[in-house]
Amino acid sequence: MKPIIIFIMTTIATSVALTTSVSAMTNQQMPYKSYCAKMVNYTMYTLARMKSAAKTDKASAEEKLGYAYVCGRGVQQDWAKANYWFTKAAEQGNADAENGLGIAYSHGLGVQQDWAKANYWFTKAAEQGNDSAEDNLGYAYHNGLGVPQDDAKADYWYQKAANQGSARAEYKLGDAYDEGLGVAQDDAKADYWYQKAANQGYARAEYNMGKAYDEGLGVPQDDAKADYWYQKAANQGYARAEYNMGNAYDEGLGVPQDDAKADYWYQKAANQGYARAEYNMGNAYDEGLGVPQDDAKADYWYQKAANQGYVGAENNLGLSYFLGQGVTQNYVRADYWLKKAAEQGNDRAETTIGIAYLKGLGVPQDSIKALSWLKKASAQGFQPAEHDIQILEHGHIE
């Protein structure tokens, strides 16, 4: 009996070693996520049976072998072998293999990327009611990939997939009604489909349900319900939802106002490079909101947001250099950031640039340019600029 026990234990150990969790999938494997999730418990014994069945051209076994090689379940991950088995099964009309081959061509996995070939296989699978292929065809028509762009055809395929419970298709159909893409714009219908996708834990749909309640789009405005959905999406790491949760705590929208909790969510979004959250973290350190006041940390976050072209951060970073707050005073750098903000119409930056030209700070003194920038700010109703205009036009330069 000992050899049998050793064989079984060895098989189990090998199976565990070759089985990768869905969370450990590579970016290339992600289009096959739903298929790989079904194969988590595959063992060497299961694979051996499939290989035996595949030798007799049994399409279902060939298809499963293809996904085993895609997902690295019981075998070493190998795109060429995956596509070999997909092709054998697809040529026998196996819908999951046709869809798998379509994904390979659409992403260039083991084959040259070719959306025309991808759509050929997606269509064959979709015509058999394969919901993933229907969703993939919707995506192709929506984005004009290998086919002429056509929102109506995209919606047709999304609808078919959504009717089978495909969360991404439900979300995309929500988007179609939200933006009036191939259908009449309708907030209520958008929410209907977003809700269905959100109920399956689809983060972007959860965010959009939060936005619907936040802005009263197709549903009565309700901050508490907005926060409920934002929280669910934020818990999945969706940056915009994290930012909106920060904003809810920042302003006390549906939750008690709490600067520390606001900063917690802003920080999470900022760590993902979300510019508005980076700017708000700058503000938090600038004003000591939920964190100790710290000019250097404020400028760190302003710099990150400014590097993405966020106008408020460009202005605040420019002011930091102008005043020497958290950084060494440097009028040249100040003018650089202030001009970037001013060119986007920031009235405060326009005013400060006007003062820089008025007094020759980091730029040659030029009263004409000073007046031009100040008038831009004044035209937006910024009163300090109007005050400086009066001084300049009366010849008083301090």
Task: Describe, in plain words, how this protein is organized in 3D.
There is one protein chain. With 398 residues, the protein is mainly alpha-helical. Helix content is 68%, strand content 0%. The chain contains 22 helices and no strands. The protein has helices at 2-18, 33-38, 44-54, 59-71, 79-90, 95-107, 115-126, 131-143, 151-162, 167-179, 187-198, 203-215, 223-234, 239-251, 259-270, 275-287, 295-306, 311-323, 331-342, 347-359, 367-379, 383-393. Helix 5 (79-90) packs across helix 6, helix 8 packs antiparallel against helix 9 (151-162) and helix 13 (223-234) crosses helix 14. The longest helix is centred in the N-terminal third of the chain and has 17 residues, at 2-18. The radius of gyration is 29 Å and the shape is elongated. The N and C termini lie far apart (99 Å). 46% of the residues are buried.
- Number of DSSP helices? 22
Number of distinct beta strands: 0
Q: What percent of residues adopt helix (DSSP H or I)?
A: 55-70%
The biggest sheet amounts to: none
Q: Strand pairing plus helix content: what structural class?
A: mainly alpha
Rg calc: 29 Å
How would the global form be characterised?
elongated
Give the percentage of residues in beta strands.
Answer: under 5%
Distance between the termini: 99 Å
Q: What's the pLDDT, averaged over the residues? A: 90
Run of helices and strands = HHHHHHHHHHHHHHHHHHHHHH
Q: Could you list the spans in which at least 5 consecutive residues all have pLDDT below 50? A: 1-20
